[in-house]
């Protein structure tokens, strides 16, 4: 699909009419900070919010509310004739809409899909409202801390993948002639999220999406870094004394699965990332 790239100075009809049409039929992906923010606004535990209102272990917001005229279900947090019930806790995807955010070469770009501004299809009245620059809109939406969370969790994602690389490349597994590991990495890159969540298992899904962080952390970077440390410690405890290459293989597949599942929650190109990581492993001697 065609995308239109924007700068923070681009002027668009971004004053929202708050008609609620964008709260139907979307796929809103979540990272752990966003799930935590939702739960705090909802005044429930992250586990409760995850179990009640998300799919695939917490990486996607559930849309199971009333249907609109197109037959699209409303977000689980949408209240008819009111709007979002947890507006202050809403995730980055909702704060950016109708824009998207791409990160290329460590620089963020804002985009919208298609040649025509998306809101005009269902909310043409925005043309009669004041126009804003992309930067003004993002400031008004309070997007900055959620962008920081997304960027920090991209680092967490890579750190988890690095555990998988170490297990494959530094343990003797790759030089043993193993071809199963990369084959499964490729399979997981294209796997349906419900299947990948099942493959990872409840224990690691919980560690990934509802970390045991008991202290109140307001800063998303601090939250993600604390979470990263917990994940690294868990991996060290579970995989620090593996005895057979088969155990190492299973651990390398599991860790790559966790990294890929997080990538989907971050709205990344999971298949493309899997292919990149496979090529990286091959360049370091792994075989498929």
Q: How are the secondary structure elements laid out?
A:
Layout: E1 3-6, E2 11-12, H1 32-42, H2 46-53, E3 54-55, E4 60-61, E5 78-79, E6 83-84, H3 92-96, E7 100-104, E8 107-113, E9 132-133, H4 134-140, H5 144-169, H6 180-189, H7 193-200, H8 202-209, H9 220-239, H10 245-265, H11 270-283
Antiparallel strand pairs: 1-8, 2-9, 3-4, 5-6, 7-8
Helix pairs in contact: 1-2, 5-9, 5-10, 6-10, 6-11, 7-10, 10-11
Q: Gist?
A:
The protein is mainly alpha-helical.
List the keywords:
single chain; 288 residues; mainly alpha; 2 domains; three-stranded antiparallel sheet; two-stranded antiparallel sheet; 48% helix; Puta_zinc/iron-chelating_dom
The parts where pLDDT drops under 50 for at least 5 residues are: none
The largest pleated sheet is described as:
3 strands, antiparallel
Number of helical segments with 4 or more residues:
11
**Helix share of residues?**
40-55%
Order of helices and strands: EEHHEEEEHEEEHHHHHHHH
The beta-strand count equals 9
Strand content: 5-15%
Spatial order of the strands in the main sheet?
Answer: 1-8-7
Shape: globular
Protein name: Zinc/iron-chelating domain-containing protein
Organism: Polaribacter butkevichii
Pfam family, one: CxxCxxCC
């Amino acid at each position: 699909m065609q995308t239109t790239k924007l700068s923070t100075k681009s002027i668009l009809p971004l004053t929202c009419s708050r008609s609620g049409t964008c709260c139907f039929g979307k796929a809103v992906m979540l990272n752990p900070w966003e799930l935590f923010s939702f739960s705090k606004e909802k005044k429930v535990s992250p586990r409760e919010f995850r179990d009640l209102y998300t799919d695939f272990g917490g990486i996607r917001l559930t849309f199971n509310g009333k249907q609109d005229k197109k037959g699209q279900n409303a977000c689980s947090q949408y209240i008819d004739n009111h709007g979002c019930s947890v507006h202050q806790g809403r995730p980055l995807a909702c704060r950016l809409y109708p824009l998207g955010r791409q990160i290329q070469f460590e620089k963020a770009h804002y985009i919208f899909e298609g040649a025509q501004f998306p809101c005009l299809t269902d909310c043409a009245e925005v043309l009669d409202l004041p126009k804003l620059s992309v930067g003004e809109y993002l400031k008004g939406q309070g997007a900055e801390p959620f962008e920081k969370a997304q960027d920090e969790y991209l680092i967490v994602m890579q750190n988890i993948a690095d555990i998988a690389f170490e297990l494959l490349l530094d343990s003797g597994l790759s030089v043993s002639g193993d071809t199963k590991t990369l084959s499964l990495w490729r399979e997981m890159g294209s796997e349906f999220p419900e299947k990948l969540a099942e493959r990872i298992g409840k224990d690691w899904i919980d560690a990934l999406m509802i970390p045991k962080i008991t202290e109140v952390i307001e800063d998303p970077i601090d939250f993600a870094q604390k979470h990263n440390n917990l994940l690294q410690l868990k991996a060290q405890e579970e995989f620090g004394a593996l005895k057979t290459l088969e155990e190492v293989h299973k651990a390398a597949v599991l860790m790559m699965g966790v990294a890929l599942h997080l990538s989907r929650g971050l709205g990344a190109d999971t298949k493309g990332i899997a292919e990149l990581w496979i090529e990286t492993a091959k360049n370091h001697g792994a075989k498929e």
